[in-house]
Amino acid sequence: MGFHYSVMLPETIALLDLKKDGVYVDLTLGRGGTSSAILSHIPFGHLYSFDLDEEAIEESQERLAKVGNNFTIIHSNFRDFVPRLQEIGVHEVDGITADLGVSSPQFDEAERGFSYREDAPLDMRMNQESPVSADSIVNGYSYEQLRDIFERYGEDPYAKAIAAAIVKQRETSPIHTTGELVALIKRVKPARELKKKGHPAKQIFQALRIEVNQEMDNLRIMLDSFDSILKPGGRIAILTFQSLEDRMVKDKFRSLTVVEGSREGPDLLPSELPEAPYVALTRKPITASEEELAENHRSKSAKLRAIQKK
Predict the structure, then answer these.
(1) What's 138's domain CATH number?
(2) 97 with 151, same domain?
């Protein structure tokens, strides 16, 4: 199997400003693209990489070992990365990065159930040990719960109709495969929608993947905790692939880099205003270059943001 293509890798590495003896964290090991690049820049440092996917860990272990042995892979959700590092005596790091895209091999392996292009069991679990799968959601959630996740995480204008159709269909037969779900979505959406660019099931599949893996909650917890372990001068760079995650990262980074004027102190001089704890390294998100877009269509929606602790 080919290695997962790491989107905007040179830009990410540049933003992290790697020190040869620094301690770095890759919150999304995946197939090891970003981790191996970081490792090659820190011969005297240490890298801690996190992932939930046993397959990805196995594959990356070999890839990283070819670069160096100064790394530790931790099988854990990145929401828990601070306590997991503290457990092993790591209380300060120089840089943190996360690539929130689903790794290409997960999409490419039909049996993982992430893809709407292949017929496979409805699964979508990043962590194969998790009890919640896309199947248990599609066949177990109420109409209200389904509609809510399709609207919130999929932003699909046909969320209500699709949720209603799922509930109606499972009265006679459960929906167990990606193909069955795609067929149902195509039946519900009007012909003009089906003619539009992009796959008609994309938004519903995105919503299910986010719900199965609790992606928004995990991201929120991670964003609220990284400050406690990042050194002064340390940097965090995050790559997002959809608007909900990008909004969350953007809002968090803004809250750390911008001090809003307060009503109590309208007469304060600029030097007397409280100082923001971080500085923005990307005024606007960095997006993929023309060359990269030509090479990898998955980089189209990617946005890279980074901040540095003062």
Answers:
(1) 1.10.150.170
(2) no
Beta carbons of 31 and 61 less than 8 angstroms apart: no
pTM of the model: 0.88
The one-letter amino acid code at 61 reads Q
Burial of 230 (0-12, 13-18, 19+ CB in 10 A): buried
Which amino acid, one-letter code, is at 89?
G
Spacing of C-alpha 233 from chain mean position: 24
Place of tokens 């012909």: 191
Beta-carbon contacts of residue 148 (< 8 Å; ≥ 6 apart)? none
Tell me the pLDDT tens digit for each residue of 2-54: 345 689 999 999 999 999 999 999 999 999 999 999 999 999 999 999 998 88
Among 212, 237, 261, where does a domain finish?
212
Tell me how far apart the alpha carbons of residues 233 and 201 are, in angstroms, rounded to a whole number.
Answer: 43
> Nearest CA to 223 among 186, 254, 259, 185?
254
Strand-strand pairing, 46-51 and 230-240: unpaired
Q: Which residues 6+ apart lie within 8 Å of 130 measured at CB?
A: 212, 213
Would you place residue 118 in the very low, low, confident or very high pLDDT band (cuts 50, 70, 90)? confident
